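Weekly puzzle thread! Below is a chain. First person to post its structure in token form gets bragging rights.
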Amino acid sequence: MIKNLDESFKYKLRELVYALVKDMDINNAFKTTSRLLFNQELGEFVSFEPYLSEAAVGKQVLSCFSGKKLWVASEQYAEGSKFFDYGIEHEKIKEIQSKPLNVDEIKDVDSLLHAVQEKFIYSGNKTLGNSNFVENSDSIVDSNNILNSSIMTKSNHCAYSYLMQKSEYVFGSTSSGDSSYIMRCFYNNSLKRCFECCTVVKSSDCYFSYNLMGCGDCLFSFNLRNKRNMVGNIQLTNEHYAGLKTKLVGELAEELKRKKRLDFSVVDILQ
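Winning reply:
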């Protein structure tokens, strides 16, 4: 039955199915991450997009050919720059770049630069290697189920993130490679189940912590090495820590569910 449909309708149908699958996968991944971090679901992913998008690096531009929205990994392009969709507009670029310059219009260096400038069209939405279900993202390599992100390599189930490698289930995070099930984490490496961490390495189950290494189960703690069961840099017993963690993380979850964001972040201490 599909083969009897005209090409334009089949293309639109594929786009619709793609969007539905992508939204379902990202939403499920967000709920899974929420349960691991907060022992409960926070709500639907779409409600938290404004909050998570604060970590995204890059900007939205328009294709000079189709007017379609594209994402580029840098915010530093000059005003007036032109862009094309890397995935579907190669032929249009080839046509422009293969067209010879008009020699009669080349009178000096300035006129030459002006003529060449017409061929400067930057690419957006670059998806490379074995990547699938990537939307509104740029410089994505061998990654799957990626949304509104930039410079991601060998990563899966990520949204509103930047400069990630070998990571999965990542939301609103920046430069935190080899990590999984993290949300709102910045400039880290090798994290597991962390929320609002900054400059933390080889650590797990940490919340609102800064400059930790080799730590686990730390809340609101700073500048620690190889510590566990810490709250506010105070060492607690396993039992005392577990009870306090349940209370504090539960309060964070309730505020997130109510406001769809927190009004403070661990990165504020860097300012």
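Puzzle host: Confirmed. Bonus trivia for everyone else. The chain has five helices and 20 strands.
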